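Appendix B. One record, verbatim.
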Amino acid sequence: MMNISNGKYKALQKLSDKNGIIGALACDQRGSLKKMIASYGKSDESSIEQFKVLVSRELTPYASSILLDPEYGWPAAEERDPNAGLLVAYEKTGYDANKKGRLPDLLPEWSVKRLKEKGADAIKLLVYYDVDEPAAINDQKQAFIERVGSECVAEDIPYFLEIVTYDAKNDDVKSAEYAKVKPHKVNEAMREFTKPRYAVDVLKVEVPVNMNFVEGYAEGEVVYTKEEARKYFKEQSDISTVPFIFLSAGVSAQLFQYTLKFAHESGSEFNGVLCGRATWKDGIKPFAESSETKAIEWFQTKGKENITSLNDVLKVTATPWWSRYDIKTQH
């Protein structure tokens, strides 16, 4: 069992519900959110802040915490429910497509100390990772992740590492070809970053299969039988020595909920979710095309339904994060 400091333990309590389940809302998108809003004809920068405020105000009463970014997210952080914890992203959005390796970078005007002083309960870092890339690339990413881990240890604040996998030889992560290698990419990345040297407290990860290619869920080609998919979910859970939560990766709210049930049935002892687009993306259209009033109506009906139905699924599928820690001395 892992140990955890009192400071990190108390912060993780703020970020989870009373049962130790992390039901967090992700709204740290920057470039992608800008494109989504602009696709409906609204392109001013203030719209991004305004949309995040609506997400935070209307949906955090039903979330254990919210993930925001320092560029557009502080007004939304102020509007969150008093009981919702705050995770803050530390990385620059995206990566430089002109350089090989999808190398990460930090927001230059921020540090973990500054984010904590501003009110963050935890730090989130996103890194794109392909376990099969050359050591010249992956060594840089590993050192980068270690550095942020050391900052979080120094400030005694939880460190959430988000790993988004890819294949340097195949850009189409939605393809059947990528689906075949995805379990290896996801689970081996988890094997690396659960090592104590990275000081990661919670891993935010993809599910190890593409559910659109699982027998019984696929509309076309089948890449994995249900039994094979279950094996990958169980393997993922067994590999992780730290709490881990699933990201929604932009799939529909319904498919994400089916996926969590499938994970649980497979023996996965995951500890919650950090769910973004699956919860709120359909609220962008009324926000951008109509009015704030129409958007609020959507959040108070469909948006609320998305997040409360997800919470219902988490109650019966997720495992408390503290089950992966030796917390006998932490009470």
